[in-house]
Amino acid sequence: MARFSSPTPIGFLLSGGGRTLENLLRWLEPRPDLAVVRMVVSDRAGAGGLARAERRGVPTRVLPCRSREDGERIFAALEEAGIELVLLGGFLRLLHVPDHWLGRVLNIHPSLIPRHCGQGYYGDRVHAAVLEAGDAETGCTVHQVDNIYDHGEVVAQGRVPVRPGDDVATLAARVFEEECRVYPAAVERLIRGGRD
């Protein structure tokens, strides 16, 4: 099991607007002893999540992620910043995780893995697939990140009913609301489980 400092230094990886980052930062405000986001990394310049981080004084980096070597550079930058736990939120690239980081990298996916996951399943594409399949429920999954899209060990799930008349937007909003509850709770359990 990973061992974590108090507060645990977190690195956050994203590709887009950063709503999951914003939720985490708000959630951490009354918990300064638990964890602090020390770096935000995006694979895309101009990602909205970078601006959110900068407004809150969190250092940012833009690092491409197209190969195993890029993944190694990302983790080298995180290590240099003293990061102990990495969280992905809307990071749309396959991240190659070095062996010594396995168990310390989490992702949140907007479906109940193993349903509607893997390469090409992200954002509204996931919710459209749920509706097309006629699923009665969906939700979100926090999982360990390994070197396969949406594949690592499931840490937590939150369930959301699919309601008559739902469209992609209404379903996405309810799933994101559940993500805002489930992801921070899973992070807290992992950190507290890795402390004496």
Can you describe this structure?
The protein has 196 residues and is of the alpha/beta class. The chain folds into two domains: 1-101, Formyl transferase, N-terminal domain (Rossmann fold, 3-Layer(aba) Sandwich), CATH 3.40.50.170; 108-187, Rossmann fold (3-Layer(aba) Sandwich), CATH 3.40.50.170. The protein has helices at 19-28, 48-55, 68-80, 124-133, 168-193; strands spanning 8-14, 35-42, 60-62, 85-88, 105-109, 137-144, 154-161. Strands 3-2-1-4-5-6-7 form a seven-stranded mixed sheet, with helices on one face. Helix 1 (19-28) links the parallel strand 1 (8-14) and strand 2. The radius of gyration is 16 Å and the shape is globular. The chain starts with 7 loop residues before the first strand and ends with a helix. The mean pLDDT is 95.
Summary tags:
seven-stranded mixed β-sheet; alpha/beta; Rossmann fold
- Kindly report the average pLDDT value: 95
Structural class: alpha/beta
What is the N-to-C succession of helices and strands?
A: EHEHEHEEHEEH
Give the biggest sheet.
7 strands, mixed
Number of domains: 2
- Reading off the top of the CATH hierarchy, the class of the largest domain is best stated as Alpha Beta
From the N-terminal CA to the C-terminal CA, the straight-line distance is 12 Å
The backbone outline, from C-alpha atoms, is globular
Q: Give me the CATH superfamily of the largest domain.
A: Formyl transferase, N-terminal domain
CATH fold-level label of the largest domain: Rossmann fold
> Helical residue percent?
25-40%
**What fraction strand?**
15-25%
Which parts are unreliable, with pLDDT below 50 for 5 consecutive residues or more?
none
* Total E-strand runs: 7
Strands ordered across the widest β-sheet: 3-2-1-4-5-6-7
CATH architecture of the largest domain: 3-Layer(aba) Sandwich
Number of helices: 5
How much is the radius of gyration in Å?
16 Å
